[in-house]
User: Fold this.
Amino acid sequence: MKQESLTVGAVIFPGFEMLDLYGPLEMFGLAGDGFQIRIVSESGEPVESSHGPRAIADDLFSDDRRYDILLVPGGRGTRNEIHNRVILEWLKKRSWDCRFVTSVCTGSVLLAVAGVLEGRKATTNKLAFDWVASFGVNIEWQRKARWVEDGKYFTASGVSAGIDMALALVDHILGPTAAEEAALRAEYQRNTDADRDPFANVP
Amino acid sequence: MKQESLTVGAVIFPGFEMLDLYGPLEMFGLAGDGFQIRIVSESGEPVESSHGPRAIADDLFSDDRRYDILLVPGGRGTRNEIHNRVILEWLKKRSWDCRFVTSVCTGSVLLAVAGVLEGRKATTNKLAFDWVASFGVNIEWQRKARWVEDGKYFTASGVSAGIDMALALVDHILGPTAAEEAALRAEYQRNTDADRDPFANVP
Assistant:
């Protein structure tokens, strides 16, 4: 199915988790010409991920661009960003005017603190679950989920779960063939069942 | 087991594949304090990946640093880099003085052209197999493999296979507990069998 390409606005901040970001972006990238990827951050300086490698933004928050899809990675940097009014206000505004809002791992804590997950079901990774689930007033946090879809919100559990979540979104938008092709190009064995979570019972 | 941290020198070039690079790096990053990651490229300018997002190097080839582990991603940029004497000579020199040489996807074509895989078994991704396997004089290219280990050379098949290869190397160096913990933190269901290749028979 041919349709216009969608812009993905993928947020970075100091201490973001590499695979949270680049796993989903790889799937969008491999899904034909369906998606155009833009990295967005507060400043134009290189941004250091939680394990060191640095990324550089294409757009700044202050450019005030809208995107079709938002992608919010997690990482230890979320512990600081929950206090950063600039990213929270940008997330709130951009969540409002985009078609899909996605997060991976502790990325959902930023959406929760920004107030955009109220009244929604959502998830996060297991190892930080209790911390993340302490945010929000009326968010139905799901402990057992590979990812959670609720309306336009797609939140994934830990790190690699973002790959399955992104493929689910590719499937939702472009259909199963596009998602299967992206997985095949990545030689990735996809989990197509959002409820199948092999890590739900890890202590 | 406590031991000194190992440096990973991860190469980038225009048109590198994101997940080839960041999948393995995430696993090294999540394996306790065992690994210190450095991104290396020909220039200090931002380097654009095959789907757009840009990375920036910590070290230049001309810094002439050695690393314990080399990581060479693939991506469409390999089609140009096989003609780039600078990267090929650097790969040759660094492969000589490191403890482990790793590649993902078409990253192995650069090692092949640099001459460091002669007399070795190696693999690459399925969709570019015939092209990659046309390089080298005496390389035993393996069509059916999630990854191939031959001495200090660990070559992975397509994109996501790099994650399993990196975990196998973590296992080899630090032991199975470190590899299991990294996989658990990433909520990743690891393939521990190098010969189990679900994509071997894809046309």
Remarks:
- The first helix of chain A runs from residue 18 to 30.
- Residues 8 and 40 of chain A are 10 Å apart (CA to CA).
- The radius of gyration of chain A is 15 Å.
